[in-house]
Amino acid sequence: MIEELAKKIVELKNEFAKSYDGKSQIQEIIPKSSSETFPIMDHHLELLHQFATKNPIYYNFFEKKIGSVDCIVYEGDINKFWLNSIQHSSSKAPFSPTWIVSGYIITLLAKELGYSEVIDIGSGDGRIAFCAKILDMESYSIELDEILVDLQKLLSDKLDFHPYCSDALKFDYDSLNFKHPIFFIGGLAQMGGTALAAGVLQKINSISHLKNNSGWVFAGTFSQKYASDPKNEGGWGTFIEKNNLRSIKIISLPTAWTFHESDPTPYIFSQSI
Amino acid sequence: MSSDKDISQMFHSESLKLHNLIDIANTKTDMDIHEIVETYYQVMNVSSIATMLKQQTESEELLNKIRETEKIISEKFNSNIHPKILTSLSTSIQETTKTLQSENVNKKSKEQIENDAKLFEELRQKMSTKEFVQQYDTGITHD
User: Fold this and answer.
1) Minimal Cβ distance to A83: which of B101, B110, B113
2) Which end of chain B is less congested by CB atoms within 10 angstroms, N or C?
3) How far apart are CA A15 and CA A9, in angstroms?
4) Is the pLDDT of residue A7 over 80?
């Protein structure tokens, strides 16, 4: 069901991208209500829409029928956050979000795989942690940029996804008493993602009960704009092999940075060998 | 295989293009991104041809032309125009950043946000051009 949902949202995005003639820097869609094509609980959809309408990165929204699906289109601008994020020397990947509905689908998969806590590293506006909370998972959102964390606090009043303003490489993960966590790493491998992932992995591996008990999700790319990895996995293959992980599932979804591209973003779910 | 005459003509024509670009750069105080990139590419292009030709040719006339062009690149471009471009890009980036940071985003209309997005795009272009220019700088520093 999750893979089918992912496939349908990618088809819907492609249809939307063909007809979109607005000028916004970022744009995304969320189905208006549950349907046979998008069997997402209405209550969950409502929370996804609330996240968008309350989020100041979106300055406009309107209804649009895409194919046979009634959707809400959200238009936004993240330039201000980009300007702030590039001033952090340790931040290599400026804020650019996944789609809200993509965040929902990857956390659905994390839940189906049996993980109990979602930790979003380099979490931007906190959408992945927010989606995990919708699904009754425990979630934590770690972000270096204080302006983005202020935004997360604004968005976490109803569902507290625990925003932390911290350098993920210095964060005390042991203090949160994880049982069976899954870590979402923000940033492509080619944009400093491997350095971030390596640092967090090293910290988690030093906690004995988490070393072989944690999941990892990496955002990959097959775009020719970026150097490919000889072991593939959307740029993460060498990292996965070197760190004794194995890829267990790949699910491809729309993101802000692939809106104008034909290939969606592959999310590589992996765990210890 | 090209004759010495063909090679010499090619060098002459590429050098001429470079001299024109250097003359423009010398007189303009505010070069746009396209002009900056075009000038650096031509400097690198002519430098590469010169390096290759110096190893191949025995023509004293061509070697003299090469030395003359290398002198112009070193004295006019590397020592004068290139530092000015780098300074100008840095200043422009600082000014645009300051302007964009000082704006109040909360009271903007859809149109204002989308117009400002163009300024942000310009800033990104200036930043990547500066990176390119800095790479050139690293090259000449290590020569």
Assistant:
1) B101
2) N
3) 10
4) yes
- For residue A126, pLDDT over 80 is answered with yes
Mutate to test the interface with B, among A21, A25, A27, A260 (most CBs of B within 10 A): A25
Contact A77 B100 (CB under 8 A): no
Distance from C-alpha of A19 to C-alpha of A26, rounded to nearest angstrom: 15
Distance from CA of B110 to the nearest CA of A (A): 7
Q: What is the CATH number of the domain that holds A240?
A: 3.40.50.150
| B101, B113, B123: residue with CB nearest A59 | B113
Write down the domain spans for chain B. Answer: 4-141
CA distance B117 to A59: 13
Determine the distance in angstroms separating the CA of B57 from the nearest CA of chain A, rounded to an integer. 38
Integer-rounded Cα Rg, in Å, for chain B is 20
CA-to-CA dists, residue B68 to B14, B60, B75, B76, angstroms: 13, 12, 11, 12
**Nearest residue of chain A to residue B116 (CA atoms):** A79
Residue whose C-alpha is closest to residue B143's, from B38, B51, B16: B51
A221: tokens are 């790319």
Alpha carbon A254 to its chain centroid, in Å, reads: 10
Give the range of the structural domain holding residue A131, as residue numbers without chain letter: 81-272
Q: DSSP labels for B79-116? A: IIIHHHHHHHHHHHHHHHHHHHHHS-GGG--HHHHHHH
Chain B residues with CB under 8 Å of A83 CB are 97, 100-101, 120, 123
Q: Report the half-sphere exposure of A5 (CA within 13 A, side-chain side).
A: 19
Contacts with B117 from chain A: Cβ below 8 Å: 23-25, 77, 79
- Contacting B with CB below 8 Å, chain A residues are 23-25, 56, 59-60, 75, 77, 79-80, 82-83
> pLDDT by residue (tens digit) across B57-105?
888 888 999 999 999 999 999 999 999 999 999 999 999 998 888 876 6
Residue A101 has pLDDT above 90, yes or no: yes
A24 vs B105, B106, B114: nearest CB = B114
> Can you tell me the distance from the alpha carbon of A106 to that of A218, in angstroms, rounded to the nearest whole number?
11
Question: Residue type at B100?
Answer: L
CA atoms within 13 A on the CB side of A161: 31
